[in-house]
């Protein structure tokens, strides 16, 4: 990975989808530094080995990540299992993204009220940086391998109505 500097930042990118497979949070943060005006961030979480999450729960105030401080409004986690590594990874963004309006977390267990309550505690939702964003847990079965055209990614890169079942536990919606 090359060092990140203002010389290689891309200010026009507003939507980014990342596939996380064993990456360290610091590597993801270095990528985010390249996209200072990022407004929507989508993660597909894969089974990964232990991630180095020690001492990274808060951004360094002397070295802020611009998109987390000023621009990031939507955060989506796909394939969230709720294990310690997933929770620590998501918690970092919940505790540091200051202007979030939406947090969507898709999980096979998203329709289990007790599990969702436990996740709220693990993610430290009460301490979130943006009071405007309450995590929305969804139970989804998706077609992650489906190829998409670039125009399909403009709104939501994980939207695939043809093969997805959604339900929102917190709103009282029942699952099919």
UniProtKB/TrEMBL annotation:
Pfam assignment, any one: FBD
Q: Which superkingdom, per the lineage?
A: Eukaryota
Q: Using the record's annotation, list all stretches that form the FBD domain.
A: 61-105
**Residue ranges of domain F-box/LRR-repeat protein 15/At3g58940/PEG3-like LRR in the record:** 2-42
Family matches, as InterPro entries: F-box_dom-containing, FBD, LRR_FXL15/At3g58940/PEG3-like
- Name assigned to this protein: FBD domain-containing protein
């Amino acid at each position: 990975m090359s060092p990140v500097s203002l010389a290689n930042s891309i200010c026009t990118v507003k939507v980014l989808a990342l596939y996380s497979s064993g990456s360290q949070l610091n590597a993801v943060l270095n990528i985010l530094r390249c996209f200072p005006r990022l407004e929507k961030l989508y993660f597909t979480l894969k089974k990964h080995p232990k991630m180095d999450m020690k001492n990274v729960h808060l951004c360094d105030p002397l070295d802020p990540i611009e998109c987390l401080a000023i621009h990031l409004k939507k955060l989506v986690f796909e394939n969230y299992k709720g294990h310690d590594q997933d929770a620590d990874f998501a918690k970092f963004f919940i505790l540091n993204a200051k202007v979030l309006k939406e947090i969507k977390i898709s999980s096979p267990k998203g329709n289990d009220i007790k599990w969702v309550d436990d996740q709220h505690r693990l993610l430290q939702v009460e301490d979130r940086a943006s009071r405007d964003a309450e995590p929305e847990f969804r139970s989804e079965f998706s077609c992650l391998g489906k190829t998409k055209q670039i125009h399909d990614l403009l709104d939501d890169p994980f939207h695939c109505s043809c093969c997805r079942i959604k339900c929102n536990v917190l709103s009282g919606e029942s699952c099919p």
